[in-house]
Amino acid sequence: MKDNIILQSFINNFRRHIAPFLKPNVGLTCKIFPVKQGGAILELTIGVGIANDDLFESVTSNVSEALGKVKQHAFGGNLAGFKFSGTNVVMEESRIILIKGEDDVNAWDDKAALADVNRILPPSKGGQR
Question: What mean pLDDT comes out for the span 108-126?
Answer without folding.
Answer: 86
